[in-house]
Amino acid sequence: MSRAFSATHWLGALERAWLLFHLENTAYRFMFTSPPEGEWVALDCETTGLNVNSDEIISVAAVRICGNRVMTSERLELLVRPERRVSPESVRIHQLREQDVAKGMAPEEAMAKLMHFIGCRPLVGYYLEFDLAMIDRAVAPLLGGGMGLPQDRYEVSAMYYDYKYQQLPRNQRDNPFIDLRFATLMNDLQLPQRNAHDALNDAVMAALAFVKLKQLLATG
Q1: Would you call 87 helix, strand, or coil by DSSP?
Q2: Pick from 97, 86, 89: which is nearest to 48 by CA?
Q3: Which range marks the domain in which residue 209 is found?
Q4: Which helix (H) or strand (E) holds 166?
Q5: Exposure string (b/e) for 61-83, b if CB count within 10 Å is 16 or more?
Q6: With a cut of 70, which residues of the chain have pLDDT below it?
Q7: For residue 139, is it within any domain?
Q8: In 3D, which of 148, 45, 147 has the Cα closest to residue 104?
Q9: CA-CA distance, 39 to 124, in Å (whole number)?
């Protein structure tokens, strides 16, 4: 795997060992093993709102990446049943109504399935920080000790920023303006776009962008 691109969150051996030592639920030790070479998982979630402390996940999706291939046949897509009501504002964004998510899984069951699907593979996403803040809060009761997902993370918007920054003339690098909107990124990379604010569609698009960007960054 080329090291021309780097994880935005990377665990060293000592930090990984420390987390493993403090893992209360040893059934999830598999997440701390060495990942398969050249494999990642792109993920996305939809929520009842944007407050990472009080809102809840109502949909989560993930798709595997192997080398330069997005394995859409190896995907996970789950509806999650929240405890709080789904606000009309969020319904307008993701089109998931209360009667839709009422059929979903309990959060604990959904997070267990997600962690088994991910395994030890590094994570990929577009503005992944929000999604993982929501997911980490949901998986903490399963892992124990307030622990979130331990995998390394690759942020697509950061990779795109690095790619566009490299293309700028040196006299424009002091105050660069780089449009990081998802639609702009996908258009610029000449990648197909799916309907946004659908967890699976967003995960697949992030995976496609990741594959294209890691190739572009590797070739300079």
Answers
A1: coil
A2: 86
A3: 13-218
A4: helix 156-167
A5: bbbbbeeeebeeeebbebbbbbe
A6: 1-4
A7: yes
A8: 45
A9: 10
